[in-house]
Amino acid sequence: PLPLHMGSVNCYLLESPTGYLLVDSGGSNSRQALLEGLKTAGCAPGKLRLILITHGDFDHTGNAAAVRQVFGGQIAMHTADAPMAEIGDMFANRKPPHRLLRLLLPKFSGFGAAERFKPDLLLEDEQDLSLYGFDGRVLSIPGHSKGSLGLRMDNGDFFCGDLLTGTGGPALNSLIDNLADASASLEKLASLEIGQVYPGHGEPFPFENFFQAYQAVDRAAQ
Predict the structure, then answer these.
(1) Are 53 and 85 within 8 A, CB to CB?
(2) How many CB atoms lie within 10 A of CB 149?
(3) Is beta strand 19-23 parallel, antiparallel or unpaired with respect to 12-16?
(4) Chain CA centroid to CA 189, Å
(5) 83, 93, 136, 139: which has the fewest Cβ within 10 Å?
(6) What digits encode the pLDDT tens for the residues 9-32?
(7) What is the Cα Rg of the chain in Å?
């Protein structure tokens, strides 16, 4: 759950014979639940290989530093979003928000000095994760933020961060910083073999279900 009844965010723990990979870390308000959940799942300290952050928003980065401290593992994210985590500013590489939002959000997000961190590993498009024991690669999918990343596993599973959402059904996230970038990212994904999508918010869904609905909306708009 997120603070102030703002909904919830998904974190995903992947297991391989060599250890674990955590996709996103949630908001700091749910830290204890996350740490206990990792231990319950068998991810003991020293077994976590990577903490993959899909983008720099507080509800995805909020526990990364704490998880690294307790479990070890490298924090990995895209170069373009790294400043967001390092200085605690979700708008470091986005269009300027309303002044009131910029003032209030840090007070309610729980993303203070203790939550800031410098990534151990800066990822680029198509970077292979087999070195860390996982059959997949990261994809650059800007739109929600400049440095948004997805993780496509070799079996077709895709962890999309906040480009897409499963809240209320498969859809493009309503919070898009650059629509042209988002459209290009969707075309990129359409050229790949993607099966089940695991979004940052909401329920998983088949990519085909989303893309058919997206195309129908696009044709109607034309």
Answers:
(1) yes
(2) 28
(3) antiparallel
(4) 16
(5) 83
(6) 999 999 999 999 999 999 999 999
(7) 17
